[in-house]
Design a protein that fits this description.
- One of its GO terms (cellular component) is cytosol.
- It comes from Symbiodinium necroappetens.
- This protein has about 550 residues and is α/β, with parallel strands linked by helices.
- It has 3 domains: about 5-155, Rossmann fold (3-Layer(aba) Sandwich); about 160-455, pyruvate-formate lyase- activating enzyme (Alpha-Beta Horseshoe); about 460-555, no CATH class.
- A 6-stranded parallel β-sheet has the order 2-1-3-4-5-6, with helices on both faces.
- Strand 20 and strand 21 form a beta hairpin.
- It is globular.
- Mean pLDDT is about 85; it is low at about 130-145, about 255-280 and about 485-495.
- Bound molecules: S-adenosyl-L-homocysteine (SAH), iron/sulfur cluster and FE3-S4 cluster (F3S).
- Iron/sulfur cluster (SF4) binds near residues 202 and 204.
Length: about 550
């Protein structure tokens, strides 16, 4: 369906950012044009998140707003993609009839077909509108409404993926989406995400992800390594591997694997159109440690390799050894604890104790924390406050955990009950909103102090900074100076390249740049007049840190 403009807005996690980038690439290849202006688009897509109610609320408010526009422009096509589409399913269309297309995260390869269908249907509905009005009058029936309903196009995996024997085949067609990735050497900021695992099998009792993303499937290692090489060839310097539990990565070549009790043959799976060279010989297994080593060794153009999110169980020394011995793998782990109380962890079904968690952090530090060599290990965490039955003593234990873990940053969330999860159905959400809010603020204050201490300890040091582009401050300044005309989000991450270019084109005087250290700390510095800001983007440069606040280091290029 060429010559249509599409606005694609992304909510939620990095997995969604990557999905949006792939969707944007796929639609562009088919002749759609992406725009950063929702009002100018023929097709408006929201790639949504369901992890907390707040994430869904944002989308509900977008859908409320767009209803008014659609009343004026009946040809407009509105699509909800991602986890909220999967979680809410067709209920979403009942609640928001403005939605024409629903597409779950495991069905995104079908999106072009769905959109094509929706665009044509809306066109014919608009063309027939006059007749329908007559019909409605004649029969006293709401023909328009029923025609509207039949016009909806939906692709959701439902619960079938966990039972279906065609799981491998479903994975294959989705695999095509990742394989189709086209990376333009010019339009990126030097950094990219690469998926290694889809879905999740952990079923933490509070979490919607296993219900929206389906069963855990590991991508073939050759596909991942090839993708990293292609990205490196296009000038990508930093790759972040993505998965809900990345350290569980395990690809069994030439044997059967069990996915949630369903035995899936992986032998001889072929991927049409791919360049893969998998040899399914015997019982060969690629572990997460093997995968990291392969990417590190076979794609040396990737100067920074990191991965999120690690699960605090089953993290072997083999991975820590590969990290220690591979200079281009970052000394950074995002490894959420969720709670500092063993009772709460058990109710969450996390499968580890606080003692085991802290033992892992000690082990990781033993292998990887080398501040004297300029390579400290940086940790990041996630915590949930106010989970079902959390007492003040449990909460104090979470504070204690933060003090021991010393994360460089920690995301802290108030528990949000999610329909469809075990906790929603079986455990009472009995901590008041006021207590959740208070605990959230108290925990943030504890973390604030720890983060500040870590930032301050780096003042005076020289950090190697991977430059991502102009700083947030510089973007806002450019946008304000240009009356908001610079569009800051179009598809996904790949558009950062053009955003940087647009800001730099308009900048005058020294430009403030931003980047990240190996340990993922944010660094801001001014580009000296003698250097080209564009030339710095996507490179690793030394910066001497002059001062620091909680989340940002400020320095000068050396
Ligand atoms: N796979 C990752 C997390 C993915 S979801 C892991 O297991 O670590 C990202 C974060 O959202 C989680 O770490 C958790 O802290 C938070 N989260 C998930 N469900 C939530 C809920 N129902 N309420 C509040 N926070 C939640
Ligand atoms: Fe959710 Fe737990 Fe899976 Fe993470 S590991 S995505 S928190 S179910
Ligand atoms: Fe949200 Fe789905 Fe990611 S629920 S956090 S977009 S996996």
């Amino acid at each position: 369906m060429p010559d249509r403009t599409v606005y694609l807005e992304t909510f939620g996690c990095q997995m969604n950012e990557l999905d949006s980038e792939l969707v944007a690439g796929q639609l562009t290849a088919l002749g759609y044009r992406l725009t950063g202006e929702a009002d100018a688009a023929d097709v408006v897509l929201y790639n949504t998140c369901s992890v907390r109610d707040l994430a869904e609320q944002k989308v509900r408010s977008r859908l409320g707003e767009i209803r008014l526009r659609k009343a004026e422009e009946p040809g407009l096509v509105v699509g909800v993609l991602g986890c909220m589409a999967e979680r809410d399913g067709e209920d979403l269309i009942r609640k928001f009839p403005v939605v024409d297309v629903l597409c779950g995260p495991a069905e995104l390869d079908k999106l072009p077909g769905l959109l094509d269908n929706a665009v044509r249907t809306r066109e014919s509905l608009v063309a027939d509108a006059g007749d329908e009005a007559v019909l409605t009058k004649k029969n006293g029936r709401t023909v328009h409404a029923s025609a509207e309903r039949s016009a909806k196009v939906v692709a959701l995996q439902g619960d079938s993926s966990r039972r279906s024997s065609t799981l491998a085949a479903a994975g294959d067609s989705l695999e095509m989406l990742d394989l189709s990735r086209a990376v333009s050497p010019h339009d990126h900021d030097g950094s990219a995400y690469v998926r290694i695992t889809r879905g999740c099998n952990k079923f933490c009792t509070y979490c919607v992800v296993p219900h929206t993303r389906g069963a855990e499937i590991h991508r073939p290692p050759d596909h991942i390594v090839d993708e990293c090489k292609r990205l490196a060839d296009a000038g990508i310097v930093e790759v972040t591997l993505l998965g809900q539990t990345v350290n569980h990565y395990r690809f069994e070549h030439g044997s059967s694997v069990s996915v949630s009790g369903v035995t899936q043959p992986q032998k001889g799976r072929t991927y049409k159109g791919s360049h893969h060279r998998d040899v399914y010989a015997g019982e060969r297994v690629t572990t997460f440690a093997d995968l990291l080593k392969r990417i590190h060794d076979e794609a040396p153009g990737i100067q920074r390799l990191r991965f999120v999110t690690s699960y605090p169980r089953d993290f072997g020394n083999d991975v820590l050894e590969v990290m220690r011995d591979s200079p281009r793998i970052c000394r950074y782990l995002h490894i959420p604890a969720q709670s500092g109380s063993n009772e709460v962890l058990a109710r969450m079904n996390r499968g580890y104790t606080v003692e085991e968690y802290l033992e892992f952090l000690d082990r990781a530090r033993h292998f990887l924390d080398e501040p004297e060599k300029g390579r400290p290990l940086m940790l990041a965490g996630d915590m949930i406050v106010g989970f079902c039955g959390e007492t003040e003593a449990d909460f104090e234990a979470s504070k204690e955990l933060l003090r021991k873990a010393r994360y460089k940053n920690c995301f802290i969330f108030k528990y949000s009950p999610r329909p469809g999860t075990t906790a929603y159905d079986r455990i009472a959400d009995d901590v008041s909103e006021a207590d959740k809010r208070r605990r959230c603020n108290e925990l943030l204050a504890v973390q604030h102090e720890i983060s500040h201490g870590i930032s301050e300890s780096l003042v005076g040091s020289v950090q190697h900074v991977f430059v991502q582009g102009v700083s947030e401050y510089e973007r806002k300044r450019a946008k304000a100076a240009d009356n908001g005309m610079i569009s800051l989000t179009v598809g996904g991450r790949s558009d950062l390249g053009s955003t940087n270019a647009a800001v730099l084109e308009r900048a005058s005087g020294p430009v403030q740049m931003t980047g990240r250290t190996d340990g993922d700390l944010i660094v801001v510095f001014d580009c000296p007049e003698s250097r080209s800001a564009t030339g710095l983007i996507g490179r690793v440069v030394p910066v001497r840190i002059a001062r620091a606040n909680v989340l940002t280091l400020f320095g000068e290029l050396v």
